[in-house]
Amino acid sequence: MTLSSSRLMEVSRALRRLASPCRLCPHRCGALRLEGQRGRCGAGSDLEVASVCVHYGEEPVLSGGAGVGNVFLAHCSMSCVYCQNHDISQTDARHPMEAGALADRLVRFQEQGCPSVGFVSPTHYLPWVVEALALAVDRGFRLPVIHNGSGYESPEALGLLEGVFQIYLPDARYWSDEYAVRYSRAPGYSKAARDALREMYRQVGPLRAGGDGVAGSGLLVRLLVLPNRISGTGEW
Q: Is 149 left (phi over 0), alpha (psi -120 to 50) or beta?
């Protein structure tokens, strides 16, 4: 299901109502982000990105030979001690970007031949992301969109996204909330992630690839393997 730009703007407005007081992620920190406060994640009232680039390191079934047009969002709802993107999520490496400018970059990815675009750690910026998608659709954007996240999602926000993302690429990081708190400061991670996976599957179903072997829709779950069985991978 592809949404029109007007419908996407409705979704964006609904998500903004979850941003102030903020309850976009399971922390439900209550920050008045639209009034300038920063949330527990560090995000405020403006969209901030760390990088916008063609990324060749995603799963081959998503990137093909052309790479995914990725938007790496600044900040994160989790604080993983092992984060490979810590220079994005836990530092000041961030740049404000207007939704219209981001929309232009999405269209540019399409012109470059990318099979899809992806938003990395989008949860805390969902209202702004969906607004940019609405503007991009008005400018001819038609690619599948990937929600590339940690699995730590709010059911209230996730439930508004049906039809917005064609591909979900979540992590399954912790079976034990004890470890989720200790290593990622993410209380309630296990239940939040399991509930999120069910909702994502309901929305998009199993991963489906075309004749070129590149997926255009569906759910692809990454099982994170951590030392000493911390992630409880076998339980998933």
A: beta
